[in-house]
Design a protein that fits this description.
single chain, 319 residues, alpha/beta, D-Maltodextrin-Binding Protein, domain 2, 2 domains, five-stranded mixed sheet
Length: 319
Amino acid sequence: MMLFSYHRKCKAQVLLFFTSVFCAVFCDGTSYAQQRGDTLTLATYTYSTNNRLQNIAPLAAFLERQLQRPVRTLSFPDPPSLANAVKSGVVDIAVMNTFGYLLLAASPNEKGLPVATFRIATGQSSNYRTIVLSRNGLEITSKAWLRKNSKTLAVAFVSPGSTTGNLIPRLYFASQGIADAENAFARVVYAGTHAEALSLVRAGKVDIAALASEVYENSPHDSSQPVQKLTTLWTSPDIKLGPVVVKSSLSVSERKAIIKQLVGIERTAPEAFTALRDGWTEAKLADALVPTTDRYYDDVRRMFGNPKTSAILIKKFAR
């Protein structure tokens, strides 16, 4: 009887031992997967009909291999939607435009950290600039003329989340004494694309259009149509390119692991870098992904020397 009791006690101890081992391996493994968030979400935004998913797919595959965890990709309708997705915690890594990042950074509960951005090759000028054009026959002779006659003018921007086609030209108009375009001009429209904004001003459907300078410089002209002379009112200096943002609620070790893979990717995964760069026309001259911080974008906030104006405009478009 004592021998039977002894064997039963030993059997219970062995069972307890293996149960402990099982929990140590599997239960701790599960909690680790939960702690690390398991699947990472890499996201960007759509421009016109291009969701850019094909441009971030090689980066997702590279991160999946290097970090040894699944990475899914998403594309949001526009830069403000992407900024909101980062704020809500839906996105872990976001490839953003400059205005989208500024919208995110302006949030009181900002939840994304800029960690990398495109570097323009040494000696090269960025093609990330705004041009403001006026239609054929309209002669804007001075800052005072524009301000005085603004109520008779129709203006086309590109889209609410566009850097070159909305934020920067609004800063330009503010420097001309027009802080609120909607109240100052007779009509304000969003063309949807840079090419369409150019088309509107060429056709005389609006008096002024603001768009990316490269679109104007590289735009084809229909030789069967009479040349419509446009006047350049202003061209911006080079604008800082948008960042890759990492969700701030990720652990320090997770953020460091992601940054390690992003910075220098032009060497470690050139095909992923090329695909990423090719998704943004403003980045076509870039030669690397380099570290960045929020302070890098102070140049944009201080454009025209008035960060308060920038803050007001950014807040206006925050959702």
